[in-house]
Design a protein that fits this description.
Blueprint: H1 8-13, E1 29-32, E2 40-42, E3 45-51, E4 55-62, E5 66-73, E6 77-81, E7 88-92, E8 95-99, E9 103-107, E10 110-116, E11 120-127, H2 131-136, E12 166-169, E13 182-184, E14 189-192, E15 196-197, E16 215-221, E17 223-229, E18 243-248, E19 251-255, E20 260-265, E21 270-277, H3 282-286
Antiparallel strand pairs: 1-19, 2-3, 3-4, 4-11, 5-10, 6-9, 6-11, 7-8, 7-10, 9-12, 13-14, 14-21, 15-21, 16-19, 16-21, 17-18, 17-20
């Protein structure tokens, strides 16, 4: 359910046929980085890790000159530099790129290193194909068994021209009819939503659900109330209470399918949310909203 000014209203009208109603559900997961200890500290960086079924987030705070490294990374991952004053030096497989702050970077499989000369915060988003990172996540026990209703990740086709460092500015102005600032790679879709200044208009919320994929809602600035409601089934044992979770930033909320959900920015200043999906969403891709779609083809079954 969307307000008619929301670009997703057009997409909802053309949605696919309904699927069979699920009979069991998982709860939401919350990574409250602002009130918990980091999962590890090394090379001048503190890192918090929280996962979903197919994706995980590593939020890091770095001292000047601090670095983040991966060795023999199995697949691509995404780096978010959400602050303009936080440039980075990104190295991967012999390639070196100097990246401005307020950028999204896709790093290739293999060995990589991210350095922040001025320090600051950096967020990395991975698939859960890296067992070493999965084990470190604060909520690893939540995924000891596969969550219901979530389709497992099948990577999308390799990028045009092969794997390499790809950097994109987030300084993309809003365009009428386009939803957010969406980028995809072979395993992830990241939507760096347009900035919201001040509390969200409570007459224009967007309650909706997803049939078979989780949504990661990464709060980088401000505060959000995540409203969630699960369907009723014939089995009362499967029912779950509504949640109205107020979270500060930085934090990650993992919203399970098919919970009805909407998020409301709360602070009077900047409220910045980033949505994460794995695998990339076909419906968003078909709307022409993906800013780097020419570099990352869709599977032939969808194209």
């Amino acid at each position: 359910m969307y307000d008619q000014t929301d670009p997703r209203a057009r997409m909802a009208a053309a949605s696919a046929a309904p699927v069979a109603a699920p009979m069991r559900f998982s709860g939401a997961d919350y990574g409250l980085f602002y009130e918990t200890d980091p999962q590890f500290t090394e090379d001048g960086a503190k890192t918090w890790l929280t996962r979903g079924q197919n994706f995980l987030v590593g939020y890091s705070e770095l001292q000047a000159g601090g670095s983040l490294s991966r060795t023999s990374q199995v697949d691509e991952y995404v780096l978010l530099l959400s602050d303009r004053e936080t440039p980075a030096v990104v190295q991967a497989n012999g390639e070196r790129v100097e990246v401005d702050g307020f950028s999204l970077v896709i790093l290739p499989p293999g060995d990589s290193r991210i350095s922040l000369p001025k320090g600051g915060r950096a967020t990395r988003i991975f698939s859960t194909r890296s067992d070493d990172l999965n084990a470190l996540c604060a909520n690893a026990d939540s995924y000891a068994e596969q969550h219901p209703n979530v389709t497992l990740l099948e990577p999308w086709p390799d990028p045009v021209g092969g794997f390499r460092i790809r950097a994109y500015s987030l300084d993309v102005p809003p365009t009428p009819g386009r939803f957010g600032r969406i980028f995809r790679c072979t395993t992830l879709m990241v939507n760096y939503l347009d900035a919201q200044n001040g509390p969200r208009d409570i007459t224009k919320l967007s309650p909706h659900h997803h049939d078979d994929f989780e949504q990661g809602s990464l709060a980088l600035d401000g505060a959000f109330t995540h409203h969630l409601r699960w369907p009723w089934t014939t089995n009362l044992n499967a029912w779950r209470d509504d949640e109205h979770a107020l979270v500060q930033s930085p934090s990650l909320t993992v919203i399970p399918p098919p919970a009805i959900h909407t998020s409301r920015g709360m602070d009077h200043g900047l409220n910045q949310l980033v949505d994460i999906f794995s695998p990339p969403r076909v419906d968003f891709s078909n709307q022409g909203w993906v800013l780097n779609a020419d570099e990352y083809p869709m599977p032939s079954s969808y194209a």
